[in-house]
Structure prediction request, 233 residues.
Amino acid sequence: MQDLQTIEVKGQRVLTTKQIAEAYGTEEDKIRWNYKYNKGKYKEGKHYILIQGEELRELKRECEFHTLLKQAKSVCFWTEKGALLHAKSLNTDKAWEVYEYLVDFYFRAKEEKPETAQERQTSEKKAVIPVNTRTEKVPEAIEAKTRTIPVYGLNPAKRMVVDIPRNAEALQLIGEMRKYLTGMDALLDTYCMFLPEEEFKKMAYAVQGMAGKISRTALFLYTFKPHIVEEYM
Prediction:
């Protein structure tokens, strides 16, 4: 799974039928059959993206595809929610386990990365406001009206604030919360369907598991202790 080829279509990460089949431990024909048998549940743009014509030709020029796809006149790419429906159709422990992995490390891997030390240093340099660099003398009457008295020895342009925007641990928690919320949204789409009782129980269990992750991450965010720093506002 670590060497899964990344494919992006229309701004979102997707998977081919071959990738879905290999990841879930089944055959491509089984994935196609599941789609055909449950076609009414799959919505274009939500569960899959169909690329054909000039769009497909352009995509082939930009990306490296499996040999079979190079000859295809149209290609169906599966979104995160489409991958969920296939996991539900297969209803195997491996499919559910792999789907959770895909959510964690493939579909949601584009979350904003914490700022590196070098990037933070560069941004801080840009934020520094030079003092006494006026090239023209300001009339004393005007200067007196605009002069600000420093508070507690701080630069009047700065404030004491929490460092969340550049706190790597906080940004990681935020990214995890966004990932789990998206996963919950996908699960609820399938939960709100006519399901056999056995499949419904598994779906309810998956919702409960995702809710636990959301609750746990929310607790971490609530109890998180950021640093207090002096920053320009």
Observations:
- The first strand starts at residue 7 and ends at 9.
